[in-house]
Design brief:
Helix content is 66%, strand content 0%. By secondary structure, the protein is mainly alpha-helical. The protein has one domain. Helix 2 crosses helix 4 and helix 5 packs across helix 6. The model has no long low-confidence stretch (mean pLDDT 86).
Length: 152
Amino acid sequence: MTHPVKNAPLHRLSEFAVGLLFGWGLLISGMTDPGKVIGFLDLAGAWDPSLAFVMGGAVLVGLVAFTLARRRTLTLLGGALHLPTRQDIDRRLVVGGLMFGAGWGLAGFCPGPALVSMAAGHGQAVLFVGAMLAGMGLYELFDRGMAKPATA
């Protein structure tokens, strides 16, 4: 069930602005360059530590944002604020993290930077996003099949 947003045009404009800022940050930080990402992940070779600073900055911003958000019940635009509550580490989380890391290491892309790179016209990113969408579709099919009760 969806809940109506009080000021939908302002809400959509803020979503667009935040997405644009995020994409711009990905471009500036080099997260959209698969070579730079793979250089960061190559600990035994010519390691490029620059993305560690990007990730560290993101973690700090996230810590501050979540600390402030926990004190609120409404978003800045007046909508209901829903923060995650689960804290357990289950098999799905571990397997998903391993798959994400393997894909990131093999392709040099993760979802956000891949979308930005695709919009910039990079062929590798188009292939990655296609494979990512196919994987998401397969997961949905598998997950629905696992959720169906067995018939006798």
